[in-house]
Amino acid sequence: MNMSLIALIFLPITFATQGWAGERKDYGRYVTPQELYAIYGDKSWKWEQGAGHFARGHRRFTAVLSVKDRSFGTGKWTLPGRGRLCFRALWRTKKGNGKSRTCFAHRTRNGAIYQKKQPNGDWYLFKSKVVAEGDEFNKVVEENLVNRGLMKIRGG
């Protein structure tokens, strides 16, 4: 079998796995630690249930998932490079305690920021070039949304 015929047979398979059907989107460069610090430092990220706060002092991370269920976490947040924001916490709930580390990757291209939960999340638009109403970025706010809930849980 000649090489041209082999190439014609395998060319469609190559494009089906790497090209047209499964083409990877270019999400740009990694967001720098300095840029991530500006986005998250001394701010709270509102979640579907609760919020997490990223204090600048000692990079303390605190979160409240539910005051009613007494679910909260305390730990540290880091910016280990390659566009990552990570937080490691001891989570306490009525059902028990456990440690976990959660990381989100960030990339930027043409003024937009993309984010995905690591290791297996999908990339999504975190911040549009011109901030839009539905951007997850809008859920990162300058107030501390966690302290009041922690005080209630801890009885203070």
Backbone shape: elongated
Mean pLDDT equals 88
Strand content: 35-45%
Query: Strand tally, please?
Result: 10
Poorly predicted residue ranges:
1-20
Count of DSSP-assigned helices: 3
Helix-strand topology string: HEHEEEEEEEEEH
How much helical structure, as a percent, in the residues?
10-25%
Number of domains: 1
Largest sheet: 10 strands, antiparallel
User: What is the CA-atom radius of gyration, in angstroms?
Assistant: 21 Å
Rounded to the nearest angstrom, the distance between the terminal CA atoms is: 80 Å
| Classification by helices and strands | alpha+beta
Tell me what the structure shows.
It is a single chain. With 156 residues, this protein is α+β, with helices and mostly antiparallel strands. It has one domain (26-153). It contains three helices and ten strands; from the N terminus they run H-E-H-E-E-E-E-E-E-E-E-E-H. It has helices spanning 3-18, 33-40, 147-153, and strands at 29-30, 43-46, 51-54, 60-66, 71-81, 84-93, 96-109, 112-118, 124-127, 140-141. Strand 2 and strand 3 (51-54) form a beta hairpin. Residues 1-20 have low confidence and may be disordered.
Spell out the key features of this protein.
3 helices; disordered N terminus; 20% helix; single chain; elongated; alpha+beta; 156 residues; 10-stranded antiparallel sheet
What are the SSEs and their pairings?
Blueprint: H1 3-18, E1 29-30, H2 33-40, E2 43-46, E3 51-54, E4 60-66, E5 71-81, E6 84-93, E7 96-109, E8 112-118, E9 124-127, E10 140-141, H3 147-153
Antiparallel strand pairs: 1-7, 2-3, 2-10, 3-4, 4-5, 5-6, 6-7, 7-8, 8-9
